[in-house]
Design goal:
Layout lengths: L2 E13 L34 H16 L19 H6 L14 E3 L4 E3 L3 E10 L4 E11 L4 E11 L6 E2 L2 E2 L1 H18 L12 E12 L5 H11 L1
Antiparallel strand pairs: 1-6, 1-9, 2-6, 3-6, 4-5, 7-8
Length: about 230
């Protein structure tokens, strides 16, 4: 088994509506916010965890491919099939024994580029008998218009040379799966409260690079020469 190529996908994530990805609420304050956004522990700027985007892409792809598992259909796919795009890209869920090799996708945390202000939105439950609001709570969201850096890596192994997806083969097929997952996230949303209008995002200025692993790029050769000296 040998890694032969590496694709990178770089883009800007633009929030088209308020975005909420939950943080840890360790401190309870009277009159404070009930549900906070996740923020960098040092800069206190909001960011999008790579795990959140990766999980959302996997979930949407599983819906599109009909690949949920478990008795209630609520478990990630773990079929481990040679032709399964989910298991090949993300790895078979809870299945240690398989012949697919390591997961192919690397999703970095998306750091803030612009915006990033936090708005506090009040939510409640409506008593349908009398029409009054019950149990109000305060929720943090990153404001619409904020942008974040996206960086995704796709590793291609020699095991992938015969893998096909949507008329593509090999590394291009792997890339197609990931790009389709990004498209599906655009059509649904990211984070909590999507059904209430939260988390609508768009991927702007998408740039793709295909890197062969046969040799170092020129800039790495120069850096290595400097380090060797």
């Amino acid at each position: 088994m040998k890694k032969v190529e590496h694709f990178t996908i770089q883009a800007t994530i633009e929030c088209l509506s308020g975005l909420r990805i939950g943080g840890s609420d360790n401190l309870l304050q009277i009159g404070g916010t009930d549900l906070t956004c996740i923020k960098h522990p040092v800069t206190l700027q909001p960011y999008i965890p790579g795990s959140s985007l990766k999980g959302k892409m996997r979930s949407e792809l599983e819906k599109a491919e009909g690949k949920f598992s478990g008795q209630d259909g609520n478990e990630p796919c773990d079929c481990g099939g040679e032709k399964c795009p989910i298991c090949r890209i993300f790895g078979p869920h809870k299945k240690a024994q398989h012949d697919l090799g390591p997961s192919r996708i690397i999703v970095r945390d998306a750091t803030l580029v612009s915006g990033g202000q936090i708005e506090t939105k009040t939510e409640n439950i409506i008593d349908r008998r009398v029409g009054t609001a019950l149990h109000p709570r305060k929720v943090e969201r990153v404001v619409s218009g904020s942008t974040f850096n996206l960086n995704i890596g796709v590793q291609v192994w020699d095991l992938d040379q015969n893998f096909t997806y949507q008329e593509q083969t090999g590394g291009h097929a792997l890339f197609k799966v990931v790009r389709y997952g990004m498209y599906l996230v655009e059509k649904t949303g990211l984070g909590a409260g999507v059904s209430k209008g939260y988390g609508r995002v768009a991927f702007r200025n998408v740039k793709v690079a295909r890197i062969s692993l046969d040799k170092f790029p020129d800039e790495w050769s120069e850096a290595n020469a400097t380090l060797s000296a």
